[in-house]
Amino acid sequence: ARIVEAYRWANGDVVGRIPASQFVEMRARYLTSPRFGLYVDGGDILDQRRFQVVGGAVIGRRIVAGIISEF
Questions:
Q1: Beta strands of the chain (E only): which ranges?
Q2: Distance CA 49, CA 60 (A)
Q3: Which backbone phi and psi does 52 adopt, to 5 degrees?
Q4: Model pTM?
Q5: Do 29 and 68 meet the contact criterion of CB atoms below 8 Å apart?
Q6: What does the buried/exposed string (b/e) look like for 50-64 if buried means 16 or more CB atoms within 10 Å of the residue's CB?
Q7: For residue 44, how many other CB atoms are within 10 A of its CB?
């Protein structure tokens, strides 16, 4: 988990306040055999829609799943 306090942001003529936010990540991995596995990676699982720069894109929940192969 990561907690970020509110802060003031300025870039040229664009000035604003970035609100406080909390960021929670979770990861899980399951080995189906000695060489293969499955994984799930979740970022911002609380889905606290936030932005990091004034005028920037809003960031929300991100979940990625996949297959792992080790040789």
A1: 2-4, 7-11, 14-18, 21-23, 25-31, 36-43, 62-69
A2: 5
A3: -110, -15
A4: 0.66
A5: yes
A6: beeeeeeeeeeeeee
A7: 19
Residue type, 52: Q
The single-letter code of the amino acid at 59 is I
Residue 43 burial (10 A CB sphere; 0-12, 13-18, 19+): middle
| Both structure tokens of 53 | 């720069």
Give dist(CA 58, CA 56) in Å, integer.
7
- What pLDDT, in 10s, does the model give residues 19-63? 898 889 999 999 999 999 999 999 989 888 888 888 788 888 999
- Can you give the length of the chain in residues? 71
What does residue 45 show for φ and ψ, rounded to 5 degrees? -65, -15
